[in-house]
Amino acid sequence: MSLGMGMGFGGVPSAHTDVLSASPEDVPSKLRLVEEIKSRGRSCVGCKAYPDAASLYTKGIEVLSSISGDESVKKDAAILYSNRSLVLLQMGKISEALESADSACENDPSYVKAHWRRGQACNAIGNTADALASFEKALSLEPANKTLKREVEAAKVKKEQEEKLLAAAKEAKEAEAETEVAEPPKAAGPARKDAVKPASSAKPTSSTKTSNNAVKVEGDTDLFTTSDHVRGYKIRSDGKKTSYFDREISEETKQLIGDIAPKRIDPNNPTEDNAPKPLPVTEGTSAWNKAGTWEERDVTSWAKETLEAALLTSDYVLPEGSPSPGARATVSKVAKLDGHASYATVRGKKRYIYEFAFTLDWVLTLGDDHTKTCHGKVTFPDVDGTVELGDGYDIVDYHVDGSSPAGTGPLLERFVRDGGLRESIHNKIDDWVRLLRATY
Predict the structure, then answer these.
(1) DSSP assignment of 69-94, as one string?
(2) CA gyration radius for the chain?
(3) Neighbours of 390 (CB within 10 A)
(4) Structure confidence by residue, pLDDT tens digits, 276-304
(5) How far is CA 201 from CA 88, 196, 197, in A?
């Protein structure tokens, strides 16, 4: 799948010709172009402009393929392939969506969304067994993901139903075969001259149908045939025969509607009622956009500031009965925060477009000895509008510093990587999304 110079998906001219036709030479320029492509792709997905998003992700993949592959390049390529799989599936291009998901898995087998997208594409193509395998692989990489758990359970139920249907069809076919063997067909005898054809095969002439099937409706001058009710006819209150779908309006309803007959407007004598009136301008939109069809505002600066502040309030205290009651896990620093946020006003309705990736430094202070601490990092690669509130967010590159006390690995996995602090971070992100929607 490739794009012509400056052309969009399917060879259609695109509004993103500037990036689709760009040909940077050095690696830094290529990486900057990929970041621009990601940003535009997010906006396109948020506005459901899927062909444009597919064009942009394809261009990004082509640019990354020209860079000598290291792990970071492969991880970026996996994200682009995964995103392209999503938009292709939305466009109904199921086979191509599956190919992109396969490429995402090949570039980064540890990327949860790559296997998730593959499962969705397999589901769409009707391969429930492969879909279940992909969902289970994604869940094994992120056991606490509630959405993936639901995907796995739904795929299992669907697979069982399909197996039952196949078994029932097989039994029916075997029973039919046994019946045919037990009852061989009888030899046909000579036809009788006085044999009468079944009534169902007799076809009355049109004259017979008209004379025998015409029925007089009392109090009406029209005739109904026995098949008129099938054809969709009925009698109005004024006695006329009309279509079944014709709707009568009562006198009371007519009074409520009022006079709706078109009236001529005299351009030389405008009145207060028919004089042109200026369209109101919605507050916060540009003056030229009087119709309110489209208005977008970038709020990235505000979003980064408030999101970072929210993340730094994440904390979790281990409960009684845990291996270290009273131990506290917190986010000590937002080491990296990249992304974009905006909102669009589309015909009076707001749509929120955001996608962020960030790396957090965390620390866990042990409850039995506050002088002992564990340190590490974790990355959230995809915090965007495609995730439903409460479903949680993917993580990658979970890392524990080598200076952490020995034997704390299982504790950290349970209360930092899979739950505890991670759930607190999820809640803080969801609260920030609600704040974004309430503020703009």
Answers:
(1) --HHHHHHHHHHHHHHHHHHHHTT-H
(2) 34
(3) 10
(4) 555 555 554 444 455 555 567 889 999 99
(5) 52, 11, 7
